[in-house]
């Protein structure tokens, strides 16, 4: 475990120079609408290095749209998204991956016909260089790079304790393992920010606890900042450093778990208006 | 590691193409059999040493190259293309112009094989990339239609650009498979005439077979390597989940374009080899049926695997010959006598122009289907059948058999 984090931190340090930004990610008054539907209506927040930031809100509040905006799959009409001091607005989605923003999906989006190892190696895509010609020839540079990156992927397989599945096509694996593989694929990108979209949806208590442990390890050992979208309130309130609450595309509260729990707007959104009893 | 065949001690040996002893042994044996084929020494396969069978096997090798190309596009990147025949035609005519006889009726510069063969692939690839932006914006059925258009555009151009193609129904000759350093009179290595190599007498068909076999093996290696490295995985990720692949850092547009280019390169080389191998080709050779044959090769063989392409090509190319031989044999049985078998087979084959039967080998238009038509029907049925029952194709069937015997006598 110590080894995997040491290596990952080393690779990341080699890639990016010294820190010269205020916030790792800053979302500044973002508005996104589809025709007449306002999906995101003026959301602003920031995430710092090594922080575990949670976004909660009822279904349709715009949480996943926010992820897609950060990845530039959706292009917000207004506002700015700033990564390490530079705007990502207008970039292609694959460029955001190169910057160091990794992501898992609400409905698992692994490549079902590829094996666990291949899926994770695809995560390494942005950190590898061999082109199609070098790859076709194999000998030399491409081979060296493949074997080196296989080693990196094996570190992550080890970290997530999925050794016995590594050669299975992921389409055949149980749901909980697939979720873990997806986390692994994201980690393989050597990210600085990891966006987890409902990582424990549909899991039982034991699987949820396992996943919570991995999430904390990712933050503490691999020093990766995390944005977590999750409906499991116990999990969120237990592990998040700060929480953003959204409802109908609007930001209704942001603060520590204890603060947002007391916020009247949040209570209203989740439980409805308090009614005077006669 | 004796006794523990699946124990790997390095990632290198784990990621090798032939990573088990069984694979190594079978690959080695297979290669040995192929090399020894023309000498009529392999028991049971002696008939393959005959010239016509060697030509058929050479056709298989050439089609394997084209099939690998379509497999990269369809099997790995998941993009349906009906335009494969067009790119083969482009390759063929590039070869014809560059390598063709300078004193011939049609345009030709008489350049050697080592120029016209790679050039055929490169020009086809460039046209594929130029066409790509129109194709990568659409997917599925729409992409099939866009690429279908290519075949008809190509057909029109090939028919009418007479100085290059010879025109419809006439065609032109293509440069022979001869290796020259430059434009000298005597080729350095001639794959098209009988003679001795290193003191071993070989017929011309055997020499051609060796050449195209070597080419096919080279392209198989390249395709396999592509598949197991970075870009090959990027293609597969686009096939499986395109939006997720983009978010994970794979540039969808560029990689689809790349897949089109690489696929067209293989097609161009395959087309040039095919035309050169056949000698004289009319423009309608590069028609929709050829494209469909390649779709059949990939789908019947097993999309996304190199071994599947080889299986599929062997099947698709050898099937007509097998059907023809079977039909001839059945006709002989019917003509010969009045056994029960003859009576049954009489229902299947037509022996003369008044006889009823599903298939015939009569010259001209007879009753029933010709062998060619029957083959088309069989391709169609097989494509449908494999898509429904065995999406992994012949390769999938092989995997099932292998896994069954791995666990035998237990069920799992």
Biggest β-sheet strands, sense, barrel of chain B: 3 strands, parallel
How many beta-strand runs of chain A? Answer: 10
Strand order of the largest sheet of chain A: 6-7-8-3-9-10
Oligomer class: heterodimer
Termini separation of chain B comes to 25 Å
* Spatial sequence of strands, sheet with the most strands of chain B: 7-8-9
- Mass-distribution shape of chain B: globular
Tell me what portion of residues of chain A adopts beta-strand conformation. Answer: 15-25%
Major beta sheet summary of chain A: 6 strands, mixed
CATH H level, superfamily name of the largest domain in chain A:
P-loop containing nucleotide triphosphate hydrolases
User: Which architecture name of the largest domain in chain A does CATH use?
Assistant: 3-Layer(aba) Sandwich
**The level-1 CATH class of the largest domain in chain A:** Alpha Beta
How large is the count of helical segments of chain A? 11
Descriptive account of the structure:
The complex is a heterodimer of chains A (278) and B (412). Chain A has eleven helices and ten strands. With 278 residues, chain A is of the alpha/beta class. Chain A has two domains: 1-100 and 191-278, Rossmann fold, CATH 3.40.50; 111-189, no CATH class. In chain A, the strands form two sheets. Chain A has a six-stranded mixed β-sheet, with helices on both faces. In chain A, strands 2-1-4-5 form a four-stranded antiparallel β-sheet, with helices on one face. In chain A, strand 7, helix 8 (205-220) and strand 8 (225-229) form a beta-alpha-beta unit. In chain A, helix 4 (116-123) packs parallel to helix 7 (175-187). Chain A starts with a helix and ends in a 7-residue tail after the last helix. Chain B has 412 residues and is mainly alpha-helical. Chain B is 64% helix and 5% strand. Chain B is built from 16 helices and nine strands. Chain B has helices at residues 11-14, 21-36, 51-76, 84-99, 113-135, 141-160, 162-165, 204-227, 230-240, 242-247, 252-278, 288-301, 306-336, 340-346, 371-389, 393-407, and strands at 172-173, 178-179, 189-190, 195-197, 200-202, 280-281, 349-350, 359-360, 369-370. In chain B, the strands form four sheets. Chain B has a three-stranded parallel β-sheet with strand order 7-8-9. Chain B has a two-stranded antiparallel sheet with strand order 1-6. A two-stranded antiparallel ribbon of chain B has the order 2-3. Chain B starts with 10 loop residues before the first helix and ends in a 5-residue tail after the last helix. The relative contact order of chain B is 0.13. Classes of the chains: A alpha/beta (278), B mainly alpha (412). Chain A binds chain B through residues 71, 73, 92-94, 96-98, 102-103, 105, 109-114, 118, 121-126, 128-132, 134-138, 142-143, 145-147, 150-151, 154, 185-186, 189, and chain B through 10-12, 14-15, 222-223, 225-226, 228-234, 236-237, 239-241, 243-252, 258, 262, 304.
């Amino acid at each position: 475990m110590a080894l995997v984090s040491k290596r990952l931190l080393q690779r990341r340090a080699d890639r990016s120079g010294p820190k010269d930004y205020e916030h790792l990610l800053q979302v500044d008054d973002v508005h996104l609408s589809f025709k007449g539907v306002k999906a995101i209506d003026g959301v602003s927040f920031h995430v710092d290095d090594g922080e575990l930031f949670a976004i909660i809100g009822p279904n349709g509040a715009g949480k996943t749209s926010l992820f897609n905006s950060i990845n530039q799959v959706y292009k917000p009409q207004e506002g700015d998204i700033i990564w390490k001091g530079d705007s990502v607005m207008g970039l292609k989605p694959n460029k955001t991956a190169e910057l160091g923003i990794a992501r898992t999906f609400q409905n698992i989006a692994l490549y079902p016909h590829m094996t666990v190892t291949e899926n994770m190696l695809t995560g390494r895509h942005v950190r590898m260089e061999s082109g199609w010609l070098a790859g076709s020839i194999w000998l030399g540079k491409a081979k060296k790079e493949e074997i080196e990156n296989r080693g990196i992927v094996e570190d992550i397989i080890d970290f997530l304790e999925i050794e016995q599945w590594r050669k299975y096509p992921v389409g055949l694996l149980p749901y909980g393992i697939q979720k873990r593989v997806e986390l692994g694929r994201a980690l393989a990108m050597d990210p600085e920010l990891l966006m987890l979209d409902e990582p424990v949806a549909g899991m039982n208590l034991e699987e949820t606890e396992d996943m919570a442990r991995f999430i904390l390890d990712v933050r503490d050992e691999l020093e990766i900042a995390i944005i977590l979208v999750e409906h499991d309130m116990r999990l969120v309130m237990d592990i998040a450093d700060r929480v953003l609450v959204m409802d109908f595309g609007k930001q209704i509260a942001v603060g520590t778990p204890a603060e947002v729990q007391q916020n009247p707007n949040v209570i209203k959104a989740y439980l409805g208006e308090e009614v005077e009893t006669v | 590691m004796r006794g523990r065949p699946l124990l790997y001690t390095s990632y290198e040996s784990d990621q090798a193409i032939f990573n088990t002893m069984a694979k190594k042994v079978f690959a080695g044996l297979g290669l040995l059999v192929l090399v020894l084929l023309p000498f009529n020494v392999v028991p049971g396969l002696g008939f393959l040493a005959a010239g016509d069978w060697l030509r058929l096997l050479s056709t298989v090798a050439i089609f394997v190259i084209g099939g690998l190309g379509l497999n990269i596009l369809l099997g790995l990147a998941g993009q349906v293309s009906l335009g494969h025949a067009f790119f083969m035609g482009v390759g063929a005519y590039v070869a014809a112009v560059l390598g063709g006889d300078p004193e011939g009726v049609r345009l030709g510069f008489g350049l050697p094989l080592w120029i016209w063969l790679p050039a055929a692939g490169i020009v086809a690839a460039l046209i594929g990339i130029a066409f790509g932006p129109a194709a990568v914006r659409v997917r599925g059925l729409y992409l099939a239609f866009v690429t279908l258009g290519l075949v008809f555009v190509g057909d029109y151009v090939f028919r009418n650009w007479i100085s290059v193609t010879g025109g419809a129904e006439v065609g032109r000759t293509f440069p022979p498979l001869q290796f020259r350093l430059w434009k000298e009179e005597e080729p350095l290595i001639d794959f098209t005439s009988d003679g001795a190599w290193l003191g071993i007498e070989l017929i011309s068909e055997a020499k051609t077979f060796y050449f195209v076999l070597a080419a096919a093996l080279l392209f198989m290696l390249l395709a396999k390597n592509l598949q197991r490295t970075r870009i090959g995985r990027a293609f597969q990720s686009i096939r499986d989940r395109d939006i997720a692949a983009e978010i994970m850092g794979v540039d969808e547009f560029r990689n689809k374009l790349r897949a089109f280019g690489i696929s067209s390169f293989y097609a161009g080389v395959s087309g040039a080899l095919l035309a050169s191998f056949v000698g004289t080709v009319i423009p309608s050779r590069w028609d929709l049926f050829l494209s469909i044959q390649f779709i059949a090769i990939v789908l019947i063989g097993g999309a996304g695997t190199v071994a599947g392409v080889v299986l599929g090509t062997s099947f698709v190319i050898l099937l007509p010959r097998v059907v023809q031989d079977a039909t001839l044999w059945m006709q002989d049985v019917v003509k010969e006598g009045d056994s029960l078998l003859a009576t049954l087979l009489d229902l299947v084959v037509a022996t003369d122009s008044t006889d009823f039967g599903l298939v015939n080998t009569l010259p001209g238009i007879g009753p029933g289907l010709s062998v060619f038509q029957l083959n088309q029907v069989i391709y169609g049925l097989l494509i449908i059948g494999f898509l429904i029952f065995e999406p992994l194709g012949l390769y999938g069937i092989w995997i099932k058999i292998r896994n069954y015997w791995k666990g035998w006598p237990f069920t799992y």
